[in-house]
Amino acid sequence: MRSGNVVKKLGLSGQDFEEIKAAVREAESRTSGEIALAVASESSSYAFWELIASILTAGVMFLCLLPASSQIYEWMSGLFWGVKPWYLLVFYAVACGIVVFALYFLYNIPALDSLVIPSAAKNKAVTDRAFRYFSESGVYCTENHSGILIFVSYLERQVRIIADKGISVKISQDLWNLVADELTDCIAGGRVKDGFLGAVKKCGELLADNFPAQNENPDELSDGLVILEDEKWV
């Protein structure tokens, strides 16, 4: 899924992006903490699982065709001269190869993709991608290690909120998970902008209670919602 399609799927306008950005600035004005937001179209290509699903489906097709071997052989005898028994093996190999090839691309359709990927694989991919962006965006290196990342992975329909070590000693991850769950519910219900605004507000309140604003309160991270570019998976 391309990053441009994610924006359309989310249904966010330019004005919505500005409102979310303003909400982050408002939240950060009352705390020394920093809030970063990002959306990825997907957290992995899942090519391995798509290939496995394609091979397994082709294997099922092969097993279903085995009882019809004699009929297939007779059909081939009507098409070719001097049909040999090994022609049947070639037929099965070519048929299964075509099925694997076709299904591999078919399983790249998001609606089918989500059906063949194990939940554990999706959970791990989203967590890994969130932590990678946490590092890439510099959330981990704010002056007081008081940054948090709100990360949304659209294909997997999952949200992660990652807090730096300075925050984790005071605020339980369970509280961040509750905010993440509420944002997930809002996105699922089509209330994307409201979901982000609510998540930013609640995160800002948690940060303000534990990390109130100081006399010097530099803005160390981008305030806007970042749409991550599509990656060329290897």
Short descriptors:
single chain, 234 residues, Diaminopimelate Epimerase, Chain A, domain 1, 4-stranded mixed β-sheet, 4 strands, 58% helix, elongated, TPM_dom, transmembrane helix, transmembrane
The CATH topology of the largest domain comes to: Diaminopimelate Epimerase, Chain A, domain 1
N-to-C span? 16 Å
When the domains are counted, the total is 2
CATH class of the largest domain: Alpha Beta
| Oligomeric state of the chains present here | single chain
Describe the largest sheet: 4 strands, mixed
The rounded Rg comes to 25 Å
* Global geometry: elongated
Low-confidence stretches: none
In spatial order, strands of the major sheet run: 3-2-1-4
In percent terms, what proportion of residues is strand? Answer: 5-15%
Overall average pLDDT: 88
Structural class category: alpha/beta
Q: Portion of residues in helices?
A: 55-70%
Describe this protein's structure.
With 234 residues, this protein is of the alpha/beta class. It has 2 domains: 3-44 and 118-227, Diaminopimelate Epimerase, Chain A, domain 1; 47-115, no CATH class. Helix content is 58%, strand content 10%. It contains 10 helices and 4 strands; from the N terminus they run ααβαααααββαααβ. The protein has a 4-stranded mixed beta sheet with strand order 3-2-1-4, with helices on both faces. A hairpin with a 4-residue loop joins strand 2 (147-153) and strand 3. Helix 2 packs parallel to helix 10 (192-210) and helix 3 packs antiparallel against helix 5.
